[in-house]
Write a structure and sequence with these properties.
With 565 residues, the chain is α+β, with helices and mostly antiparallel strands. The protein contains twelve helices and 14 strands.
Length: 565
């Protein structure tokens, strides 16, 4: 309990003490007033009894009436007791014993347990004794202080000193009574507080034992057990929240994993069933799954909507999003979850039987496995998505992405198997066709080989009777066969690199013949040949330019009759 509340209780308790003390003092003042009237009856001092008595009681009544919440009336009561003492002394013509009425009043003031209340009565008594003693012994006969004819100064001091001791002892007792009262009161307050705390703690502990962790109890430093119970409640709440989060996470992952295992063969069925489950499980209103795909027509990667689900109904929509387009495409590129708490108007509408409405919250989660994005989950809801829901969707996104990648790989493998089977059949057909072609080629090769052998024999026979010469574009001899070399009297290879004019004599017939060959025409002529031994012979020569080259082939018909010059 705070010090403020303790002070309030202490003040409240002392207000009750003051009320009881006021009643005692009021009765005492009334008795004092009546006693003064009795003295007036015997000593005929009605004026002093009425005036002073009414004045004293009125002072107390006014202070209590106008200042009910103050302790001013306590100080006025002390003054009133001292004034009544002076009144009684005057009425009794200086009777010494009347001083005891001040001591009786001092004893009555102890009930206030306020040592400060003795200051006014002490001051009034001292002032009264000093003033009245001086006046009486100065010669004022109508002033009564004592019936003694004379009082020495030492006697006066003894008298005043004893009065001060009595008043001081009364003030001391009032002070000790207040301390004792405060200690007892604080102890009583603590005991009551402990009782109250015990009842509260028992009730609080009972609620916690029943499983009501939302039970409320005010934390107070003075209630150590209550604080411990509150701390225990907070820890139980934390444990419960952790358990709920773990159960939410584990149950959701297990259910999604079961769906993934049962739908491994169809990516479309997998997307639809997973999406329907997630929309219901996280309390969303609408959702969609986009799978990374390749657009063959545009030759670019896109996100194709694999499933769309809302309000317990399967939605049939066809939608493709380019990378970087909208929140879905941007999330794919950034590879980070996008959480919007203020969805733009007309971004997405949720349709029900009551009409259309724009959801207030949107969550776009990438499906990532091995740092590769396989797709996107987009969920819309009228309620905000908690951090646990976001963490769950990111975690389950890894499993979905892994299964999507596996499903893509399976589909790709199946497609490759089909293509392999088709290719195998085509290869078999091609192999059969190649086998037949090989057989045909083998027959053709055999025929070609036979023809080549025949042509080789023919060429060999021709080479022995016909001379050949190849002339390059610069007019030098590139090659001469042995038949022509022997005919001209040269050894094999002697003419290679020589100018062809060394063999063919330059004449008009030769010039015309050679000009036709250079322009690519085939030509024949009778030319004179220069032998090594310097004699000449005339021979029929045929010439032709080699296709694709600038060289010319000359054929010399050696068996043609020649005239030796």
């Amino acid at each position: 309990m705070s010090s403020i509340s303790i002070d309030v209780k202490v003040q409240k308790h002392f207000q009750q003490i003051y009320q009881r003390a006021n009643r005692i003092v009021e009765i005492s003042l009334g008795c004092y007033f009546v006693f003064g009237l009795g003295l007036a009856w015997f000593y005929n001092t009605w004026a002093i009894a009425l005036v002073v008595g009414i004045l004293a009681t009125s002072m107390y009544a006014v202070a209590k009436w106008f200042f009910p919440s103050k302790t001013l009336n306590q100080y006025i009561a002390g003054c009133a007791f001292a004034i009544f003492m002076a009144q009684f002394i005057y009425q009794m013509h200086g009777l010494f014993e009347m001083h005891f009425f001040a001591f009786i009043g001092a004893i009555l003031l102890i009930v206030y347990q306020n040592w400060k209340a003795f200051i006014p009565i002490t001051l009034v008594i001292v002032a009264h004794h000093a003033a009245f003693a001086y006046l009486q012994f100065a010669g004022y006969e109508e002033v009564y202080f004592t019936q003694l004819d004379y009082m020495s100064l030492s006697t006066f001091f003894f008298h005043v000193g004893l009065a001060a001791v009595i008043l001081g002892l009364c003030a001391l007792w009032a002070f000790h009574f207040r301390q004792h009262t405060e200690e007892a009161l604080l102890s009583n307050i603590k005991v009551q507080d402990q009782l109250v705390h015990s009842e509260q703690n028992m009730a609080f502990a009972t609620e916690i034992a029943k499983g009501n962790l939302d039970a409320e109890q005010k934390r107070e430093e003075s209630n150590k057990l209550g604080c411990a119970l509150i701390d225990m409640q907070e820890k139980l709440k934390d444990a419960q929240r952790r358990e709920q989060r773990e159960r939410f996470m584990n149950v959701g992952l297990a259910e999604v994993g079961d769906i993934l295992r049962k739908n491994v063969n169809s990516l479309e069925d997998l997307s639809e069933k997973v999406l329907a489950h997630l929309v219901k499980y996280v309390g969303a209103n609408q959702g969609a799954i986009f799978i990374a795909d390749h657009d063959q027509e545009k030759n670019e990667q896109v996100l194709s909507m694999a499933a769309c689900y809302a309000y317990d109904k399967k939605k049939f929509q066809e939608k493709a999003v380019r990378l970087g387009q909208g929140l879905v495409g941007q999330t794919f590129l950034e590879k980070k979850t996008t959480h919007l708490t203020k969805v733009p108007q007309d971004y997405v509408n949720i349709t029900s039987g009551l009409g259309e409405a724009t959801p207030g919250h949107l969550l776009v989660v990438p499906l990532i496995v091995n740092e590769h994005v396989e797709g996107i989950i987009e969920l819309a809801s009228f309620n905000d998505f908690s951090s646990d829901t976001i963490q769950f969707l990111e975690k389950v996104g890894e499993s979905i992405a892994s299964m999507v990648a596996s499903s893509k790989a399976s589909q790709h493998t199946a497609r490759l198997l089909d293509e392999t089977k088709t290719s195998e059949e085509e290869l078999r057909a091609a192999e059969e066709e190649m086998r037949q072609n090989n057989e045909e080629l083998q027959a053709i090769q055999e025929e070609i080989s036979r023809k080549e052998q025949s042509q080789a024999a023919l060429f060999q026979a021709v080479q022995q009777s016909i001379g050949t010469m190849e002339v390059g574009p610069d007019g030098s001899i590139v090659q001469v066969n042995d038949t022509l070399s022997r005919y001209l009297g040269y050894a094999s290879g002697d003419l290679k690199g020589q100018a062809h004019e060394k063999v063919i004599k330059q004449e008009a017939t030769y010039a015309a013949f050679w000009q036709q060959l250079q322009v690519g025409n085939t030509n024949q002529a009778s030319l004179q040949l220069q032998h090594k031994d310097s004699h000449t012979s005339t021979m029929a020569v045929s010439g032709n330019q080699v296709a694709g080259q600038d060289s010319i082939i000359l054929l010399f018909w050696i068996e043609t009759p020649v005239a030796v010059v």
